[in-house]
Design goal:
With about 675 residues, this protein is of the alpha/beta class. Helix content is about 55%, strand content about 5%.
């Protein structure tokens, strides 16, 4: 999915889960000698019952533990109490993760609806726990001096979260905060569901498919009326906007794509923003952005705006230069064109890459068969990080196309991964990693799920890059699943760091030696190194205006959360577009209605740019001439990935780099050739 179409389709989503009963007594803590992955339903008809029993068991355990901890007498052993809190957290993840996943991926609408309801119940209990004053008082009274550093960190972060939830507010305020949290959950689900379920299409004549790959045309035969249906699913949209020669058809599809979930989500979004504003105000914050940023690396809401403006300024010159190249090329076909917008930018970017850099994306894609790429990704990360993947062909899944692999490190099992890579009706429309089980040392293996929407045949290279990105989240989840404290398990760092490891792994999808290990055509010929060099040069073109588009998205997410009640959202979108996006506003679109990141990321969409600054700095530690240097990769694996949330992200990065991170590498990348 080209970034100029929409927000990046990548994200990291979900919480951990556990499916066996929770162990709470210290004398029962002897770790099992042979941990096994979760047992999923073997038949389609079992999923409803499994979901209900799994989620209810986790919630029942969590309620029991909440009451037990709240009843502990003064002077209780702090480690015993904190271990019980750890058990409660594991029980909550057991209830939340399967619901969060299945409401997005299960092919049966009934199961998806049940998963939404289960997720609401889990979120409701999570809110009840966070506002339980008796529970908080017990934990706040624990003697932190009797805890080791890791346990003390867990306690400190836990108490911080209680206060941020409003546990110290009066009864009336806590009751209102509870109502707000429940309403936010429901509206967030509704917003996401409207996007997921609203698949639209346009009808085009055969001649309007000119320029598209043969396999794409074959996959879209004419209906009885002689017209070809092109949907708003990503495998349809991306190639059409990049290759279809008819500008009217491209624009019609773009407008349709950017109008998904509209008008339904317009009111949902307004209501959600109002709830968040009230929520933050009740907690004493000047707006949601300030509340949300307090626990992120960036620190404050005002810093978000300043950072967005900093990146916009840094990318302005190169962005305008490359945009003007697109406009000049457009004018060769349409001399009267006054400007270029997103309706033409994707297509003409491909034209420029073909004509200027001799890179034809349709020729490049013949080296990237989806099945071969999948295996190649496993082979590359196995070699790089010392991981062993074993296919589990008899593993149960929610759909026939889901595949599973057990993961081991140094001959020790550390988890299981599931790959759900292709589109289908009712499935999540972007690309994301979802937790299934949060790994806990000696108690349960980490399990994660990759949910994407890639074509089943040949992939464009941009899809390969996205796959590497998402897989970065997955291995982060598994490698960091070996902590005794579930608080540190998986991708548990500050939210504005979570994209950095995945953005770093993208670099391997651009390396000629890496690509030659799996990028082969139908004759078995590996992709030529000189072609990869041209691809890299072509990729440099447009990075300025694409970064400016990212500042546009980030500014929308941020400024929507500053919106006053008398302002309307469409006016804000136009204003922000004019200020940040170098590609003009497309009339008739309603981008905000399908901006799915507004649910999970809220005001923090700047995360992608913030993480990219760090990712470029992390990459500076690797030898770009030898990306299979396992020494550096192992040090990165152990210092950054395996650490999970056990330390602040800035400390982890400083340990790896030997210095604090800075913007130097990012600035050099921006200033590089395009």
């Amino acid at each position: 999915m080209p970034p100029e179409l929409d927000e990046p389709t990548t994200t990291r989503s979900g919480t951990g889960a556990r499916y066996s009963s929770v162990v709470t007594r210290a004398e029962e803590r002897d770790p099992p000698s042979d941990l096994q992955p979760a047992r999923l339903p073997a038949s389609t008809g079992e999923w409803s019952r499994w979901l209900a029993s799994t989620c209810s068991a986790g919630l029942d355990d969590a309620r029991r533990l909440m009451d037990e901890i709240a009843a502990l007498p003064a002077g209780s052993d702090p480690l015993t109490a904190l271990r019980a809190w750890n058990d409660l957290s594991i029980a909550m993840s057991a209830a939340r993760a399967p619901a969060s996943l299945l409401m997005q991926v299960h092919p049966d609408e009934k199961v998806r609806t049940e998963a939404e309801q289960a997720s609401q119940q889990a979120d409701k209990l999570a809110t009840d726990i966070s506002l339980n004053r008796a529970l908080y008082d017990v934990l706040a009274a624990l003697d932190v001096s009797r805890l080791d550093a890791d346990a003390a960190r867990v306690l400190r972060l836990t108490l911080r979260d209680f206060v941020r939830a409003g546990v110290d507010r009066d009864d009336h305020t806590r009751a209102r905060l509870r109502e707000l949290a429940e309403q936010e959950t429901v509206l967030g689900q509704q917003f996401s569901r409207n996007i997921r379920d609203d698949v639209r299409s346009i009808a085009v004549e055969g001649w309007q498919l000119k320029g598209l790959p043969d396999d794409y045309v074959s996959a879209h035969p004419a209906d009885d009326d002689g017209l070809h249906r092109i949907t708003t699913d990503y495998p349809d949209v991306g190639p059409f906007l990049a290759f279809a020669e008819d500008p009217a058809a491209r624009r019609a599809l773009l407008i349709t794509f950017l109008s998904r979930a509209w008008p339904d989500n317009e009111g949902v979004l307004s209501d959600l923003l109002a709830l968040r504003a009230e929520h933050a105000s009740l907690l004493g914050y000047d707006g949601w952005a300030n509340y949300d940023a307090e626990v992120k690396m960036i620190g404050s809401g005002s810093a978000i705006g300043a950072f967005i403006d900093q990146i916009a300024a840094a990318t302005d010159e190169s962005g305008r230069r490359d945009r003007d190249v697109l406009l000049e090329r457009l004018r060769q076909d349409r001399p009267d064109a006054a400007a270029i917008d997103r309706g033409d930018a994707t297509y003409y970017a491909e034209v420029v890459r073909r004509e200027t850099f001799d890179v034809d994306a349709q020729q490049v894609r013949r080296y990237f068969d989806a099945m071969t790429v999948r295996q190649g990704l496993l082979d590359v990360t196995s070699r790089l990080f010392g991981l062993a993947y074993t296919a589990v062909p008899d593993a149960a899944g929610w759909h026939d196309e889901v595949v599973a692999y057990d993961v081991a490190l140094d001959d020790r099992p550390i988890g299981r991964i599931y790959l759900d890579l292709h589109p289908r009706e009712g499935k999540y429309k972007h690309a994301a990693q979802f937790d299934l089980v949060s790994g806990v040392e000696g108690r349960q293996l980490a399990e994660g799920v990759l949910v994407c929407n890639f074509p089943r045949g040949l992939m464009e290279h941009r899809d390969v890059v996205t796959l590497f990105h998402e897989f970065g989240h997955l291995i982060h989840h598994v490698l960091a699943g070996r902590h005794p404290w579930v608080r540190f398990s998986g991708v548990a760092t500050e939210w504005d760091f979570v994209e950095a490891p995945s953005q770093l792994l993208e670099e391997w999808a651009w390396d000629p030696e890496v690509l030659r290990t799996f990028a082969v055509d139908s004759h078995g010929e590996a992709i030529p190194a000189e072609l990869v060099a041209r691809m890299r040069a072509a990729n440099g073109f447009g990075k300025g205006y694409l970064a400016r588009t990212q500042t546009f998205y980030a500014a929308i997410a941020y400024q929507l959360h500053l919106l006053s009640p008398d302002e309307d959202i469409p006016a804000l979108i136009r204003r922000v577009n004019a200020a940040y996006d170098l590609l003009g506003y497309v009339e008739g679109t309603h981008f905000e209605a399908s901006f799915g990141h507004l649910v999970g990321y809220a005001s923090a969409y700047y995360t992608y740019l913030w993480s990219l600054v760090i990712a470029k700095d992390l990459f500076s530690a690797f030898d770009s001439a030898d990306l299979f240097d396992t020494g550096t990769a192992a040090r990165y694996r152990d210092t950054i990935l395996a650490a999970g949330g056990s330390r602040d992200a800035a400390e982890l990065v400083e340990d790896f780099l030997g210095r604090p991170y800075d913007i130097t590498a990012f600035s050099s990348w921006l200033a590089g050739p395009s």
